[in-house]
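Reminder to self: tokens first, then the designed residues, so the page reads top to bottom the way the pipeline ran.
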């Protein structure tokens, strides 16, 4: 009997190894394509051309379903590794590279992620806030919205494409240059609001501090994310405009969790 039990346990172990792990609900960022196609965590750019762009794809898995979704509103946090927002990364109105950030939400951008939108959706920026999260930071609010009579369904257990941020290479070289392309930068997917036509809106965001940033963050030019925490500021509404994105130029700094005193200070 003991030999049979041992063989059974061994067989069960092999089966468990053969079954792929299911993705946890949450937010994900990846360069180049949707995280379902293999997440790309860092982007290195030689900063030698004004042509082209880099794709930063936001995707998500909702823990709940919404059959009548009429909008998805992601928030992107950008944090410089030297606490000075480079002009190359400042997309706020009247900044050096206001047109340096573009948006893509067509089916071709979804790749291996599910695509829920109808053809008549529209999208774009909803507002950029430089310095919102301290020195060297930028908050980018955006969204994709459907016609009220053409809602789309979001199902739990599925990774959906949300948005592609196009980091354009314009004004990188030449006489009209915006400096700072080579500065290491960290980017975080801070929140996603799912707007329902009749259903209550659903707010997705990180649950507490994420050491290393996890799937929520990507880096530029080899930057290193020590930790990331995005939260809804009381009285502001449903979009998380406050965050701590601890960003370093490289991995030479040892990771550590922020102290409780540091976390409490964010609410003062």
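Designed residues (268 positions):
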């Amino acid at each position: 009997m003991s030999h049979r039990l041992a063989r059974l346990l061994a067989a069960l172990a092999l089966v468990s190894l053969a079954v792929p792990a299911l993705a946890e609900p949450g937010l994900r960022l990846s360069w180049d394509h949707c995280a379902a196609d293999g997440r790309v965590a860092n982007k290195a750019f030689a900063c030698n051309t004004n042509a082209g762009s880099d794709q930063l794809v936001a995707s998500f898995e909702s823990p709940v379903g919404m059959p009548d979704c009429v909008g998805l509103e992601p928030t992107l946090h950008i944090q410089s590794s030297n606490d000075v927002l480079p002009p190359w990364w400042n997309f706020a109105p009247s900044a050096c590279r206001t047109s340096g950030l573009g948006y893509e939400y067509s089916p071709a951008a979804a790749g291996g992620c599910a695509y829920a939108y109808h053809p008549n959706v529209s999208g774009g920026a909803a507002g950029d806030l430089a310095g919102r999260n301290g020195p060297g930071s930028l908050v980018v609010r955006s969204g994709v919205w459907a016609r009220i009579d053409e809602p789309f369904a979001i199902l739990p257990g599925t990774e959906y494409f949300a948005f592609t941020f196009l980091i354009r290479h314009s004004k990188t070289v030449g006489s009209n240059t915006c400096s700072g392309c080579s500065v290491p930068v960290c980017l975080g997917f801070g929140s996603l609001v799912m707007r329902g036509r009749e259903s209550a809106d659903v707010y997705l965001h990180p649950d507490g501090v994420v050491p290393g940033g996890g799937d929520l963050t990507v880096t530029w030019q080899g930057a290193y994310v020590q930790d990331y925490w995005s939260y809804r500021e009381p009285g502001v509404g449903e979009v998380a405009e406050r965050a701590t994105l601890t960003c370093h130029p490289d991995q030479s700094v040892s990771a550590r969790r922020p102290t409780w005193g540091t976390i409490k200070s964010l609410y003062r």
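Residues 22-265 form one domain.
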